[in-house]
Write a structure and sequence with these properties.
By secondary structure, the chain is α/β, with parallel strands linked by helices. 38% of the residues lie in helices and 18% in strands. It contains 12 helices and 14 strands. The strands form 4 sheets. It has a 5-stranded mixed sheet with strand order 5-4-3-6-7. Strands 10-9-8-13-14 form a 5-stranded mixed sheet. A hairpin with a 2-residue loop joins strand 11 and strand 12. Helix 9 crosses helix 11. It is globular and about 70 Å long.
């Protein structure tokens, strides 16, 4: 068996994994000489040479100019579409093999009460990004759909996301596939954000990726592998207790936009009369709140609460990096991120202290990660299960999906 991201084998029965492993290294590290690939994988010169010939013939890699017979990935050899469904917003992207975004669509919506209408909107946006990419990019390998958790362990249906009750148990993969003619791969939003962070990053082998939109989750990357858990629902840490806003509460309640908007109204920072039962209105009000200078202490308190929760995660996992994304975190901006760092420094005075940065991919980060999940499946990128590393990277076709305990009015 292939034992690790950087360990291969010459057994014929795992030739597919070896091919995928070599391609994964070239994609993440950039142009690589065959000797470098031999050292990184432990494969023989003949095996690496044979794999290289096959990858070149398939159009996935090419010899790059400059001598040394270095192999580089052909970015436009594959493409995929990623969709991120948030209660207030829809993001649809098309990417190439490296995860670079070729086309993007942003659509404000209320996704809570009419799934059929929202799926129609989603399919129309998919068609637009399919047409918006350059003609040289091939037909997409499929659609990655990232949704609030929990999700069905079989990857077919929504689970019971607290903010989308009309979507409970809906077979979204089949519904979107019927509307688009493309296969659909279902991922939890936090897992997709983590995969997007590491897809084409040479050094992003161990990190925590936090998603803070209208919900919150945190996905772990260990040795370059996104930990999905036994049912694909790893990452629920919204119930972590923290001291924030003058009392003990759960981290989701301390950070979530609806709760922050309510605090902003109570403090006179926002006008009364904002429709709190509509996700789009809450999103807009939250963005206004974060842009108000006098609201900076409220935004910082939310960031400090997240930092307190992350301190436990960082100590447990010993990760060197935290990447934070999602519409709510991005709206909080530098004030929010600085508060996360400051609280981590207080809680972890003797280390380990990770780097803490906002995602480099903006609000498209989750959709981009969903597209990368399609590419991962299409290229048979070796998972930890393939490599004999028991981190539970694959889903099991069964097991319960529990109702989230976090309650929202929408």
């Amino acid at each position: 068996m292939v034992q690790s991201r950087t360990g291969g084998t010459n057994l014929a029965r795992v030739g597919v994994q070896n091919r995928a492993l070599v391609l994964d290294l070239i994609r993440r590290r950039g142009p690589s000489a065959r000797a470098e690939l031999m050292r990184a994988t432990g494969l023989s010169a003949q095996t690496v040479s044979n794999i290289a010939v096959g990858l070149v013939a398939a159009g996935l890699v090419r010899e790059v100019p400059g001598g040394g017979r270095r192999l580089g990935v052909v970015a436009r050899s594959r493409s995929a579409i990623g969709v991120h469904l948030d209660p207030a917003h829809l993001v649809v992207v098309r990417t190439d093999l490296t995860g670079a975004v070729l086309a993007v669509e942003h659509v404000d919506l209320d996704a809570t009460d009419d799934p059929a209408r929202t799926l129609d909107t989603m399919a129309a946006a998919v068609q637009r990004v399919r047409g918006g990419a350059r003609p040289s990019v091939p037909v997409p390998a499929g659609i990655g759909l990232a949704v609030p958790g929990p999700i069905d362990p079989a990857g077919i249906r929504m689970g019971t996301p607290a903010q989308l009750p009309a979507w409970w148990e809906l077979p979204v993969t089949g519904e979107l596939a019927a509307r688009t003619g493309l296969s659909v791969h279902l991922e939890k939003d936090g897992v997709a954000s983590a995969l997007g962070e590491v897809w084409a990053a040479a050094g992003a082998d161990d990190l925590v990726s936090v998603f803070l939109g209208h919900g919150i989750s945190a996905a772990t990357v260990a040795s370059g592998e996104v930990v999905r858990g036994a049912t694909g629902n790893a990452g629920e840490f919204g119930g972590m207790p923290v001291e924030a806003h003058g009392r003990w509460t759960e981290v989701w309640e301390a950070c979530q936009p609806l709760q922050q908007v309510r605090r902003g109204i109570a403090a006179g920072l926002l006008p009364t009369g904002i429709p709190l039962d509509r996700a789009t209105d809450v999103r807009q009000a939250f963005e206004r709140l974060c842009a108000t200078p006098s609201a900076a202490p409220l935004v910082a308190e939310a960031g400090a609460a997240l930092g307190s929760a992350l301190a436990h995660v960082v100590e447990l996992l010993d990760v060197p990096r935290v990447a934070i994304g999602g519409s709510a975190a991005l709206a909080g901006g530098d004030v929010f991120i600085a508060a996360v760092r400051e609280r981590l420094a207080v809680r972890l005075p003797h280390g380990p202290f990770p780097t803490v940065e906002a995602t480099a991919f903006g609000e498209a980060s989750v959709a981009r990660g969903a597209a990368c999940a399609v590419l991962q499946a299409d290229l048979a990128v070796p998972t930890a299960v393939d490599r004999g590393v028991g981190v539970g990277a694959g889903r099991r076709p069964g097991g319960p999906v529990h109702l989230r305990s976090i309650a929202h009015p929408w």
